[in-house]
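Quick note —
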Amino acid sequence: MATDQAHRRHVIDLDDFAADELEEILETTESMKEVLSREIKQVPALRGRTVVNMFYEESTRTRISFELAAKALSANVVAFSARGSSVEKGESLIDTVRTLQALGTDIIVIRHHQSGAPYLAAQHFRGSVINAGDGRHAHPTQALLDLFTMREKLGQIRGRKVVIVGDIIHSRVARSNLWGLTKLGANVTLCAPPTLLGPEAYWTGTWPEVTISHRFDAALEGADVVMALRIQKERMQGGLLPSLREYSRAYAITPERLARLGAQTLIMHPGPMNEGVEIWPEAVSAPNAVIEEQVTNGVAVRMALLYRLAA
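Predicted structure written out below.
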């Protein structure tokens, strides 16, 4: 989708963001985080605007984070759930979007189980659409909060080695992070068993700078950031893994691997976590783990996006 960066209407993924626009969002996020540190965590930037959180999938972190972000900017916030709505009576996504538009909605935040749903919503909505996660495709706000957390802790992203390990092929988080990290100059390594990676040509063809590895211990050498992705247990039914124990032995952030990492190596996870599968409790509570900071930074990042789109 073509985008005029100076007048961006939608945030569907990070593929159409330039590096300077990403940097501007991260700088705006710093200002929003300062707002959240005040005794009264609210500014009137979006007073009179209406934000609808339109979630077709269950969510905790993302849904609540967007709600807190909109309220911190003084917007009117409406929570939409497909369950109990006209969707159960057969109403299409387009009809729902048109209804929200007729009701005066300014910004729609949409999470959907079908890849591409936010694009469809954006084509039929005069306001702004933010993708809060669609199928396997993208999760741009998660990637932005990850980028902000890395920059906040490491000072800069350019030249840093970032290892993403886990269920790569099914991960919308991995795809959006790849766009953001490569545009900001990070050296990214994708690590997974072949069954959870898919065709290597897809990754290296889309992101030529990316390194592919099937050996986690080798990939960890010199890493500045290690991001573990959730192993979706339903993948076990498809025969993509021999067992969770076997996966954990080869690819989990275990206490032994944690001990070999540098004390400054960031441990990250987008959540929700399967502790004892892709990441062990010792890694979650380690001094260099920034998993809680990721959640906290998510509110500030989403405030920054809502502010920019409304402005």
